[in-house]
Specification:
The structure holds 3 protein chains of 3 kinds. Chain A has 8 helices and no strands. By secondary structure, chain A is mostly helical. In chain A, helix 5 packs antiparallel against helix 6 and helix 6 runs antiparallel to helix 7. Chain A is flat. Chain B is an alpha/beta fold. Helices cover 34% and strands 27% of the residues of chain B. Chain B contains 17 helices and 19 strands. In chain B, strands 6-7-8-3-9-10 form a 6-stranded mixed sheet, with helices on both faces. In chain B, a hairpin with a 2-residue loop joins strand 18 and strand 19. In chain C, helix 4 packs across helix 8 and helix 10 packs across helix 13. Chain C has a two-stranded antiparallel ribbon with strand order 1-2. Chain C has a domain of 170 residues. Chain C is mostly helical. Classes of the chains: A mainly alpha, B alpha/beta, C mainly alpha. Chains in contact: A-B, A-C, B-C. Chains A and B meet through helix 6 and helix 7 of A and strand 6, helix 4, helix 5, helix 6 and helix 11 of B.
Chain lengths: 228, 469, 264
């Protein structure tokens, strides 16, 4: 759902969703076993094979930093190598579980959900959450800049600091939401059971099925190997 | 044939405070109808009634009859009216839901349950008409492109009545021409187009009928040209250029890119003490970026800036002292207003209460003194944000599109005040504007940004040539 | 040349009238403008449902067009304002924007959640996760608002940090049930305050279960198990931060309502 991570041919969104759950659960459950590491490596290669090379490469430094930080904290607090390795595994599992979501253009997810008759108000809401999260990030940046230009960013004056940050931001939230809802409604959006078209519906292919089956088989195998 | 007919329409947001007081208005198919008037006189209210926003989404007391495409809209939902009336609202950026231009343009068509092939055709055609690439990412578009995108999204839906509320606010000369020409093509095919706009100089050559709204009543303007002269006359300059040329800022080879997009490719520019510099250029050419670099809100990628404003400027972030010397007025005033009343907003940065009084006087803000700044109209907010920044008596004043949303009377007053303050304080003013009317009155020297560089420099004649070529 | 002429310079009025000034505007390119919008059938999905479904849809709609809903407000059989009010597009959009604001300001949560210190994620995100939902509740005063924000955010969280997504959903359901039992909706500011304040602390027990399931050796248990008072202390700090956030949310909402931006 972040532009730079987008895969050219992401897997069927709902399968991506199950894949995330599976990797997360299996990764965390097997974090204390050495086999868990091999499992995560296999998942990473599996993603590579299915065209996620860009996100697979970008995630490596991110995962290294995150795993490094948490492994450090865990080692300092526990002084146990096993716990430290488990922290590395857990961090890697979280980073890998994030991959299908990050690589998926938001519109594909919402269209997929519309195809399975998830209410349109929910898919619209999700689309807004995804589209406006970066915009709101920029809004916060602009407000902080504006505070500086007006000399209102001092920690010594918390009342002004809070006002200068939160009042314009809250007003912007209301403003953005009012404008957006007017725009959406005047462009014919209605809730409830009304007819609509899904432009470019997402299709399920054999490739998607193979992807999920492979992942399920791998996850089942690692659970058996570690616990049975 | 009338596409829209309003008979004795009255409307009040708050009980008994009538914004519209018996409006009789018509708009015909095959014509562009312009609705003009002062800020806050009810243009947007009138348009909101036609497209059903009032009373469906914005409550209030509505009386009278509004007939759209032969149907009385009383009791109709906005989404029903949206099948007949296409509405392009203000603030395009806040209306974009999708990540790709193609999906955004298709959104309205999807809601109208058009067949897929039809949507495909319409998306392509509407994008071509508004000259926007359907494969672009929406968040990377410039303000003008976003405006064209939202217009394309409405046109693709195919309603025969199109309403546009201040569509030129973020458009440069070229963008305006593209939009207005597209609208003419629609009316040539029998569409009814209603436009509300302050920048009469840009729209009047294209429109058929002109209506003026004042004090809640609408009147048809018979003599378009006389009206244009009264509303779009170029504002006269009251200041004279500085006698000496003492450099205040010297920019050498400034470059700046956002991702792969190269915005500035080596800008060389000197700003002199006490001058009024006007930065000209098309949408997305880097005017605002340059302004932000000058204000030290953004860091340049390459090049050098020598400044003679602050002796201890610090290495990275601009200090509080810097912003006491350099006043920045944002394009969007909403970010800079945070106090509970207009008076407190002005007093916040003012050197004394007396000076705040003087500024309130000069900007004619007495009637708004006790109002919450966020409760004001966009034009009023802009006036207050300029006043609040000016109140801190900066030596350099950076103004990014200070005249957007100002009606002609407000514009004249604003330019006059800025001129008086400049003469009195001998401040340096750097302004970015797309508006021809005040441009010359805000300029001793102009610089044209083109191809990422300061392509031309000149005086008021450059402004004249740029806007009228 | 007068100013008016200057303004019009470069535009041929005849061309303007005919709409011909656009380069390459062939007549065939514009035929799409003459097409009418297809008639919208009142049924569901892609317009492919059969007649039976149409009838069923019509019955449902009739049932839905309940006379108990007047001016967008639903009344119960006794004529009192009902607890559950219908959500408009405007409500959904505002709650989605609030969700986006909470999400963007709490982006650090999935990472902090991996640090095995009890309550740290809740403490770090407490302020923002209480300010924004409270503002949301102060505007959309309808039972179910917290749940809607949770649904919108958790569907995305499920992709990013599944445990967080599930936790948010369950917490939201509990908060809604508590609200209905105590306040019967969000008409009173105190109801908005309490729910806004509880959103984050409510995830603490689930966080405990999460650690229990996946990491029995972490210092989490040293905090929560070996020295329960420390856990109690952190929990109290989370509640205090969230109470402060909810309080700020109420103050800001009141102010922007006074400014006329937010109607009750």
């Amino acid at each position: 759902m972040i532009d730079t991570f987008h895969a050219k041919r992401p897997v069927y969104p709902l399968f991506g969703f199950f894949a995330a759950l599976l990797i997360f659960a299996a990764g965390l459950a097997t974090a204390k076993h050495v086999e868990g590491m091999w499992y995560l490596l296999a998942v990473w290669v599996w993603f590579l094979l299915f065209g996620y090379w860009r996100s697979c490469l970008i995630i490596i430094p991110c995962a290294a930093v995150v795993a490094g930080i948490f492994a450090g904290i865990t080692y300092l607090s526990s002084r146990e190598l096993g716990a430290t390795l488990a922290a590395v595994s857990r961090s890697a599992a979280v980073c890998l579980a994030v991959l299908p979501g990050l690589s998926l253009p938001a519109v594909k997810l919402t269209r997929n959900l519309s195809q399975i008759h998830v209410p349109r108000s929910v898919t619209l809401g999700m689309m807004i959450v995804l589209s406006f999260a970066p915009l709101l990030g920029k809004e916060i940046k602009r407000i902080r800049e504006a505070m500086r230009t007006r000399g209102a960013g001092s920690l010594l004056n918390p009342k002004v600091l809070y006002r200068a940050l939160l009042v314009p931001f809250a007003a912007r939230l209301v403003n953005i939401s009012d404008t957006l809802s007017l725009s959406v409604e005047t462009r014919g959006f209605r809730t409830g059971k009304v007819p609509y078209t899904i432009y470019h519906p997402v299709k399920l292919t054999m490739r998607d099925v193979i992807f999920l089956l492979g992942l399920v088989a791998g996850s089942a195998a690692i659970i058996v190997l570690c616990f049975i | 044939m009338n596409a829209v007919e309003m008979k004795n329409v009255r409307f009040a947001y708050v009980k008994d405070t009538w914004v519209l007081r018996g409006v009789n208005f018509t708009a015909e198919y095959g014509k562009i109808t312009l609705l003009s008037g002062m800020s806050g006189d009810g243009k947007s209210t009138l348009l909101s009634i036609i497209c059903g926003i009032i009373p469906n989404m914005t409550p209030g007391t509505l009386e009278g009859e509004t007939v759209v495409a032969g149907n009385d809209v009383r009791g109709m939902k906005a989404s029903e009216i949206s099948r007949t009336v296409g509405c392009v609202l203000q603030n395009a950026e806040l209306q974009i839901v999708q990540n790709i231009v193609e999906d955004e343009v298709a959104f309205g068509c999807e809601n109208l349950a058009m067949p897929q092939e039809m949507i495909e055709k319409r998306v392509k055609a509407a994008c071509a008409m508004m000259e926007i690439d359907p494969s672009l990412k929406t968040r990377t578009l410039s303000g003008g492109q976003k405006q064209r995108l939202i217009t394309a999204a409405t046109l693709a839906m195919g309603q025969k009545i199109i309403i546009l509320d201040e569509p030129l606010a973020n458009l440069d000369k070229e963008g305006t021409h593209t939009l207005m020409t597209a609208l003419r093509r629609l009316t040539a095919r029998g569409y009814c187009v209603i436009v509300s706009e302050h920048r009469l100089d840009m729209v009047l050559p294209f429109v058929d009928d002109v209506w003026n709204i004042s004090e809640g009543v609408v009147r048809k303007v018979e003599d378009k040209q006389a009206y244009l002269r009264s509303q779009a006359e170029i504002i006269r300059d009251i200041c004279s250029p500085p006698q000496e040329k003492i450099p205040l800022l010297t920019l050498t080879g400034i470059t700046k890119s956002f991702g792969k997009r190269e915005i500035l490719r080596g800008v060389d520019l000197t700003v002199y003490k006490g001058e009024r510099l006007l930065i000209l250029g098309q949408n997305g050419c880097g005017k605002t970026t340059l302004m932000r670099i000058i204000a030290r809100l953004e860091r340049q990628d390459g090049g050098k800036i020598e400044q003679f404003i602050d002796k201890k400027p610090g290495s990275r972030r601009a200090s509080r002292r810097w912003f006491r010397e350099v006043g920045v007025v944002y394009q969007n005033p909403n970010y800079q207003l945070f106090m509970p009343t207009v008076r407190k907003e002005i007093e916040f940065g003012a050197e004394s209460k007396e000076y705040a009084d003087e500024i309130i006087d000069m900007f004619d803000l007495h009637s708004l003194e006790t109002r919450h700044p966020q409760s004001l109209s966009e034009g009023q907010k802009r006036r207050v944000s300029i006043a609040a920044v000016v109140a801190s008596r900066p030596k350099i004043l950076l103004l990014d599109e200070p005249t957007v949303g100002q009606d002609y009377a407000g514009l004249q007053r604003l330019v006059d005040v800025l001129g008086k303050i400049h003469m009195r304080d001998n401040n340096t003013m750097i302004t970015v504007t797309h508006d021809l009317r005040p441009a010359q009155a805000l300029c001793d020297r102009a610089v044209l940004i083109e191809g990422g560089k300061a392509a031309k420099e000149g005086d008021k004649n450059l402004v004249q040539t740029y806007f009228t070529k | 040349m007068n100013e008016k002429d200057e303004l019009e310079k470069g535009v041929d009025p005849e061309e303007i009238k005919e709409g011909k000034t656009q380069a390459g505007a062939e007549k065939s390119d514009l035929e799409w403008l003459d097409e009418d919008i297809p008639v919208q059938e009142e049924n569901s999905g892609q317009g492919q449902e059969n007649e039976q479904k149409e009838e069923a849809g019509a019955k449902k709609r009739k049932k839905r067009q309940n006379p108990n809903i007047r001016d967008g407000v639903r009344y119960n059989k006794k004529g009192e304002v009902a607890i559950f009010q219908p959500f408009t597009v405007k409500d959904i959009v505002f709650l989605a924007i609030i969700g986006a604001a909470a999400l963007i300001t709490s982006a650090v949560m999935p990472l902090v959640a991996q640090v095995p210190i009890f309550g740290l994620p809740q403490l770090v995100t407490g302020l923002q996760m209480s300010i924004f939902p409270t503002i949301g509740l102060m505007k959309v005063r309808k039972a179910g608002s917290v749940f809607i924000v949770a649904v919108l955010v958790s569907v995305l969280e499920l992709f990013m940090a599944p445990a967080m997504g599930v936790t948010s959903l369950i917490s939201a359901i509990i908060i809604e049930l508590l609200n209905i039992a105590i306040f019967k909706g969000y008409r009173k500011d105190i109801a908005c305050f309490v729910s806004g304040m509880l959103i984050n602390p409510m995830t603490l027990p689930f966080y405990y279960l999460y650690c229990l399931a996946f990491d029995t050796n972490s210092i989490f248990f040293k905090a929560a198990g070996d020295s329960p008072w420390m856990a109690v202390g952190i929990s109290a700090a989370v509640v205090a931060v969230c109470a402060l956030g909810a309080g700020l949310g109420i103050l800001i909402s009141r102010e922007i309502r006074k400014a006329g931006l937010m109607k009750k």
